[in-house]
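Holo prediction. Input below; ligand is iron/sulfur cluster.
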Amino acid sequence: MSKYKITKNIKYPVKALNKFIIKNITFTRSNLIANEKELIDNILKDFRLSVTALNTYLDCPYKFKLNNLYRIPTAKKPYFSFGTAVHKALEKFHKKYQSENQLPPKRYLLDQFKSALTQELLTTDELKERLLQGKRFLNKYFDLHQPDLKPALYIEKFFGTSSSPLVLDNIFLTGKIDRIDIIRSKNKTVKVIDYKTGKKKTRGQIEGATADQNGALKRQLIFYKLLVSLDPTFPHKVAQAELDFIQSPKETGKSGKEVFHITNKDVQELKTVIKKSYKKIKNYQFNRTVDHAICHRCEFKNHCWPTGTPQTQKQN
Ligand code: SF4
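Structure of the complex:
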């Protein structure tokens, strides 16, 4: 194992970096300390911005610093393990469908889910509960969507890898799209699809038009269109973008697919958000959020608020 942490460009050995974080950052909580700018500059040399990282920065710049730049490890919550297993099962299922050009049986999907979930770090009770939950969701999901499932064009497609970088004004972008389906071969149009394992959201929530949401989900779809448009090796154009809420068929008896047409204006606006955010990152702007609703569900809340997370939703 390398004695250097995170990237080859970081000049800090693991021990020194950990000591640095534990002794200094833990106690400063948001102010930059001596040598920290140098550390951040080194990390940013190899940094590729994903939409998840961008959304984290927009939620809380300080969380972005801890999570996306320093990659401070946190315990994986059981629902994340569940989400990972559902994604893995659908990936395996669609890969088989794609390679054999024949719809695999439902049993195959359920078996892949079980196999993926058992590889996650869960207690016996959590494993039992999540196995049952996943079986119920995927059972109904398969039954409802079986008639319209087609072999995918791409499954788990990466954009912005080190061998094929995607750059927006010196900002390296990256992302992985769960599935890409062809819409029309003739004009090379595709639909990008992202699976969601949480509760179904309304279109208003997805677009950030409600008080409880900030548009992170729609931003994700716009980001995917941007990635595709920046990749000169990808011959298709995004005509549709879909969020597929897997638990909806079980919970409501209806499809959980929400399809959007992403406009060029959407993409232009996102480019502005990316550039502004990245400029702030380069200028070491990592203030803690004042929206404490975010803190309540944050992995770093005990670090930021050792005496308890503030109850007020927003502060000026
Ligand atoms: S607890 Fe709040 S302030 Fe601290 S990193 Fe998380 S979201 Fe940011």
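Residues 60, 62-63, 288-289, 294-295, 298, 300-301, 304 surround iron/sulfur cluster (CB under 6 Å). That is the main takeaway for now.
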